[in-house]
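Posting this for the archive.
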Amino acid sequence: MREELIPLTDFKPISNYERIKDMSLDEMAKWMWDEFECAGCAYTAGKCGGKKCLDGHKAWLEQEAKAE
């Protein structure tokens, strides 16, 4: 049996928010490093010498959120 193909015109592109929301912890940490480097890291900026970037971003993501 052959599956019916759905035309590409029926697909709605996802927003940046949806793409980010659907990321795993590892994907989010890598994305944060790619976009923000040391900003958003749980460690003091540059203190780790750039050796724990993904770990620092993961640690920040796992921290309790601060009330704004």
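The chain has three helices and no strands. Helices lie at 16-21, 25-36, 53-62.
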